[in-house]
Every structure is written in structure tokens, then in C-alpha cells.
Amino acid sequence: MRKNSVKNTRINGEVQRVLAEIIRGEIKDPRISPWTSVVSVEVAPDLKSCKAWISVLGSEEVREATLQGLKSAEGFIKKQLARTINLRNTPEITFVMDQSIEYGVNMSRRIDEVIARDNETIKDREGAAGEEGADVSDDEE
Fold this sequence. Notes:
Radius of gyration: 26 Å
Shape: elongated
Largest sheet: 3 strands, mixed
Helix content: 55-70%
């Protein structure tokens, strides 16, 4: 099976969906944050290994605790994955921290700050121009 084949793409999507369900609903480890998302999954063509990129919204300590919780639950996750998805081999899962969601939220916040600052600058300029125009019209009368 080639890496970018239709079959591999379908398997990646199915493993991602099932992993998200397992993490969200079946793992009872308190270290795993409820704000954990499975961003992407890449299953090797031989179905022996799998990289799962996860994103956790929160502080660095919360991310590290979630990653430790997921690593300690790898056996349980693999067993549940094998029960749910009928594959020739159940892949060994490696969790990788992905910061793309947090990066996007941070960039969105920065853009909002810049827009707010620009709007304040425009209002200040309009206010200053309005006051100058009012002084000129008062002198003419």
C-alpha cells in the first residue's frame, strides 16, 4: 500500500476518528485534559506504526501531563483501537504534540488586538480633525 493511496487516506481518517472517541470518552486518566484534540493521524503503509498529532489547549504543564497520560494509556488505546477497527495489524501509536490550534488562537488574538489598536488610532485622528474643523468654523462666524 502506498503512502498516499486512497486506502491509506481512509485508514488514517478512521484511526483519527476512533482515537478521538477513545480519548474523549473511554480514558479515565485525570492527567488527560478535556481540551485534547486529535489533529492528524498518519498510519504507516505496513500498518505497524502510527503517528498521532494531538493538540491540548492550556498551559505547558497541562500539555505535558496529557502527553504522559496518553503514553501511559497506549496499551488500552491500542486494545480499543483493535476492537473497533478491523485491521490486519493494529499499529503502535506514537503521540506527538501539535501546537497548530494554540498557534492559530494566539495569532487570531494578536490580529484582534492590532485591529482594535488601529480603530482607536482612527477614532483619535477623526476626533482631532473634528476639533480642528470646529475651531475653524467658530473663527469664521
